[in-house]
Design a protein that fits this description.
Length: 105
Amino acid sequence: MNFMGTRKQDEFLLEAKRTRTRPPPLYKVLLLNDDYTPMDFVIIVLQKFFGMDRERATRVMLQVHREGMGICGVFPRDIASTKVEQVVSFARQHQHPLACVMEEN
């Protein structure tokens, strides 16, 4: 009879190291008040680019009018940047000086 020997090797225990990835930083997109852009145009912008219904868009527009700025939404940086560009471009196409900016949340 021939027996095969078994050798016990050093055992390595692999432990799963938990790494926590942080979500990307978010940015607020803000509309800034001016004395020239019509309120109805601001409502259209909020509906078109931020998917707001007329009631919510009106509330945000009034916040912009009364407080000098209003939050349109909070997004990852690339989306926020795109929204700002879209709003500014749309406003310029319609000869309005509406300002839209983003800031880290």
